[in-house]
Structures are given as C-alpha cells and as structure tokens.
C-alpha cells in the first residue's frame, strides 16, 4: 500500500500530480485550508511548492533504487555483524548502509536529474514566477516563444547536465549488466 | 568455559530437539545430512534464531531460557562464528574485517591495529591487512574469517561447515591450520564439519534429530 503510494507518481502524468497536490495542499484543499486557517501558510505558487512538486514526482526514483539495493544486499552480513557484537543500529551504520551506498547514490542522482527536468507538476502547482518558482524547463518553454536563442542555450545546459548524469551512472549500470 | 544447552526448534518439516553439552576446551562435532538442522542448531546457539523451547547456558550464564522468557541478543553474546562462506565485509579492508568485533566493543584504533597485525600474522596473512576481501583467495578469506571470529576472545566458537566452500587442496591446508588454532583456543567449540575429521578426538552428536525419523541418539564419544 505504502509502496504503491510512493511509486504512483512514477506512472502518473505530472500535470495530474500537480492537480492532486493542488487539491490537497491548495488554499481550498484538504490540508491547505487548515494550514491557511491555523498558521496563515499558503503553499501554492511559492518556492516551497516547487520543492514539494519536484519531490513528489522524483522521489520514486530514489525509493525504487534504494529498495532494490536493500533487497540485493546479502542479509548474512548482518548476521555476521551481530555475532561480532554489533547491535542493530551499529550494523545498519557500519554494514548495511555502506553495502547499499552505491544504490542510494545512483538513486539520488537519478532523482535529482528527474527533478531538474520536471515541468508539468511544477507549473500546475507552483506556477511560473521568475525568481521564485521558475525552473529551467519552464524558462526554456517561455524563452522559446520570445527569444529562441536563449532557449537553445538553456536547453544545451540541461542537455549537458543530463549527459553528465548518464556518464556518471554508466559505469554502474554496465558493471551491473556484466558482473 | 563450557556450554550446556537444549535447543528445540520447529520450522515446517524440521523438528529439532537437541541436548548439547560441551566442556571447557572440548570440541563438539555436529554431523548430519543436509537439512538435518546443523546450521539451525548453530544459529540458535549464536542467538540469531530464537529457539521455540529449551535453554542455552555458557559458563553458567544463561543466554536463552525460553520458559523463563530470557533471550540474550546475538550481539551481546561473547562468541565467534565462522560461516560456510567467509562473508568478509566487502567494503572494509581485511584488517578492518578482522578487528570489526573489537570496534563494536569500543577498543581504540591503535590497539585494534596491533591486534589486527598479530592475528593476521597468526593465520598466515601478514602484510595483507590493507587488501580488499575480493583480492584474497578462498582459503585466505576463510582464514581471515577465522581470525575475525577469534579476535574478541569468545567463550564459544561456532564453525558452520567452514571448509565446504573451498576446493579439496585448500581444504586440507586450511583444515590443518584450523586444528592448530583451535588447539590454542580455550573456549567451548561447536563444529559442523563437511567431512568427518577423524584424527581429532571429538565428541560426536549425530543429527538425526527429526522426531519420528528415529529416536534421539545419546551423544556418543569417539
């Protein structure tokens, strides 16, 4: 159930995700109206909204990656650690975490790359205000209509970042394909 | 240091009910076909598995007493275990692997270094402390695992078919070394050998403990 909830943004159209966030956290939303009444906090169309929207869309990449790493990790190492006097927390810190660290790192990079390119949920939930909620893909979209050259430059920057991410992860994926 | 235990475990078709008595410095060999519950018995003694009934006491200290609800978790038991595979932590160097048990018990780094060097020397791996486990051969890895199990001066040493993952020749070499190191070890030992090791004087407990299959044989001396 929790797993389905966490991974649903993976298959959900981002705009739908944005609408869902709006319905929950928007000024008249279920949680949003309470936040507004009690603390005077409104989330939509702020930088916080950008962070929430991108986390919502990109988090499944991290979760799925970490889950896979944890499943693949050999549980017998934890038994060994226990027989060597390590309690659960020590075992997690000194054994489990270092063993799954590559998976966590790869998931974090993928998650970050996905968040960087996020468009639909961001523009729906956070809008497109330069300086507060305008992300690079939004800027590219706007610039394309007025000054195509700027759009091309921004696109090239995003392309470079994406390629760098792939190069960074390539070794890991290839290593996995041919152990 | 002595071990006195009765372990009852019920797992699916496996019904284990074993009395175990090992005196100080004595070696107990646990023999039996695959699936007879040898590993299960050792896991229960190590505290990795809570028995369904019975009790485990080492040196008069109760580790497990199911009727009384006592269960000392594995990490609080002064024991060493060598598993079928060496299972050296791949992210640590060989030296760090050997001293892992000292680190969890709060021994200082300088002392750990000295201990690592001494133990690696004892098991014939001197100078290999900075290597990664992946750079060791199977026999070397298993010797490092033995050093790791013995480094904390355990009251009970459990060996779960420690030679089964090695090839025939390496097995002979490591077995000879095991005998040398174990002769110097003063605690109680439980050992699940791949092949009977007749040159050593052992008490043998045969593990045809499946209830119904045969009546429980009394431990016999050989």
From TrEMBL, chain A:
<dbReference type="InterPro" id="IPR000515">
    <property type="entry name" value="MetI-like"/>
</dbReference>
<feature type="transmembrane region" description="Helical">
    <location>
        <begin position="150"/>
        <end position="169"/>
    </location>
</feature>
<keyword id="KW-0812">Transmembrane</keyword>
<keyword id="KW-0813">Transport</keyword>
<dbReference type="InterPro" id="IPR035906">
    <property type="entry name" value="MetI-like_sf"/>
</dbReference>
<keyword id="KW-0500">Molybdenum</keyword>
<feature type="transmembrane region" description="Helical">
    <location>
        <begin position="95"/>
        <end position="115"/>
    </location>
</feature>
<protein>
    <recommendedName>
        <fullName>Molybdenum transport system permease</fullName>
    </recommendedName>
</protein>
<comment type="similarity">
    <text>Belongs to the binding-protein-dependent transport system permease family. CysTW subfamily.</text>
</comment>
<dbReference type="Pfam" id="PF00528">
    <property type="entry name" value="BPD_transp_1"/>
</dbReference>
<dbReference type="InterPro" id="IPR011867">
    <property type="entry name" value="ModB_ABC"/>
</dbReference>
<keyword id="KW-1133">Transmembrane helix</keyword>
<comment type="function">
    <text>Part of the binding-protein-dependent transport system for molybdenum; probably responsible for the translocation of the substrate across the membrane.</text>
</comment>
<feature type="domain" description="ABC transmembrane type-1">
    <location>
        <begin position="1"/>
        <end position="169"/>
    </location>
</feature>
<keyword id="KW-1003">Cell membrane</keyword>
<keyword id="KW-0472">Membrane</keyword>
<feature type="transmembrane region" description="Helical">
    <location>
        <begin position="41"/>
        <end position="66"/>
    </location>
</feature>
TrEMBL record, chain B:
<dbReference type="InterPro" id="IPR003593">
    <property type="entry name" value="AAA+_ATPase"/>
</dbReference>
<keyword id="KW-0547">Nucleotide-binding</keyword>
<feature type="domain" description="ABC transporter">
    <location>
        <begin position="1"/>
        <end position="221"/>
    </location>
</feature>
<dbReference type="Pfam" id="PF00005">
    <property type="entry name" value="ABC_tran"/>
</dbReference>
<keyword id="KW-0813">Transport</keyword>
<dbReference type="GO" id="GO:0005524">
    <property type="term" value="F:ATP binding"/>
</dbReference>
<dbReference type="InterPro" id="IPR003439">
    <property type="entry name" value="ABC_transporter-like_ATP-bd"/>
</dbReference>
<dbReference type="InterPro" id="IPR027417">
    <property type="entry name" value="P-loop_NTPase"/>
</dbReference>
<keyword id="KW-0067">ATP-binding</keyword>
<dbReference type="InterPro" id="IPR050093">
    <property type="entry name" value="ABC_SmlMolc_Importer"/>
</dbReference>
<protein>
    <submittedName>
        <fullName>ATP-binding cassette domain-containing protein</fullName>
    </submittedName>
</protein>
<dbReference type="InterPro" id="IPR017871">
    <property type="entry name" value="ABC_transporter-like_CS"/>
</dbReference>
């Amino acid at each position: 159930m929790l797993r389905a909830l966490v991974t649903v943004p993976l298959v959900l159209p981002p705009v739908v995700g944005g609408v869902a966030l709006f319905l929950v956290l928007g000024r008249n939303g279920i949680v949003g109206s309470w936040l507004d009444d009690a603390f005077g906090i409104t989330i939509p169309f702020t930088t916080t909204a950008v962070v929430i929207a991108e986390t919502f869309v990109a988090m499944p990449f991290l979760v799925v990656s970490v889950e896979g790493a944890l499943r693949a990790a050999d549980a017998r190492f934890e038994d060994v650690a226990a027989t060597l006097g390590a309690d659960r927390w020590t075992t997690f810190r000194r054994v489990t975490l270092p063993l799954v660290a590559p998976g966590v790192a790869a998931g974090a990079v993928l998650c970050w790359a996905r968040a960087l390119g996020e468009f639909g949920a961001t523009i729906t939930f956070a809008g497109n205000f330069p300086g507060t909620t305008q992300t690079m893909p939004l800027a590219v979209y706007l610039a394309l209509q007025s000054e195509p050259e700027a759009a091309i430059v921004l696109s090239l920057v995003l392309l470079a970042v994406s390629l760098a991410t792939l190069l960074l992860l390539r070794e890991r994926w290839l290593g996995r394909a041919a152990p | 240091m002595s071990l006195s235990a009765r372990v009852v475990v019920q797992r699916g078709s496996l019904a284990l009910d074993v009395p175990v008595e090992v005196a100080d410095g004595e070696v107990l060999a646990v023999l039996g076909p695959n699936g007879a519950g040898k590993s299960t018995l050792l896991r229960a003694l190590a505290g990795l598995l809570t028995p369904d009934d019975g009790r485990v006491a080492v040196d008069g200290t109760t580790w497990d007493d199911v009727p009384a609800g006592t269960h000392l978790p594995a990490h609080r038991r002064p024991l060493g275990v060598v598993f079928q595979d060496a299972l050296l932590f791949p992210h640590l160097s060989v030296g760090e692997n050997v001293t892992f048990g000292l680190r969890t018990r709060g021994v200082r780094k300088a002392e750990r270094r000295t201990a690592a060097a001494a133990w690696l020397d004892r098991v014939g791996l001197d100078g290999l402390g900075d290597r990664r486990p992946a750079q060791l051969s199977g026999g070397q890895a298993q010797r490092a695992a033995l050093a790791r199990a013995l480094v904390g001066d355990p009251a009970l040493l459990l060996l779960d078919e420690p030679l089964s993952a090695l090839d025939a020749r390496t097995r002979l070499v490591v077995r000879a070394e095991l005998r040398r190191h174990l002769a110097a070890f003063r605690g109680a030992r439980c050992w699940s050998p791949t092949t009977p090791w007749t040159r050593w004087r052992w008490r043998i407990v045969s593990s045809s403990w499946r209830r119904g299959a045969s009546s429980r044989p009394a431990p016999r001396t050989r």
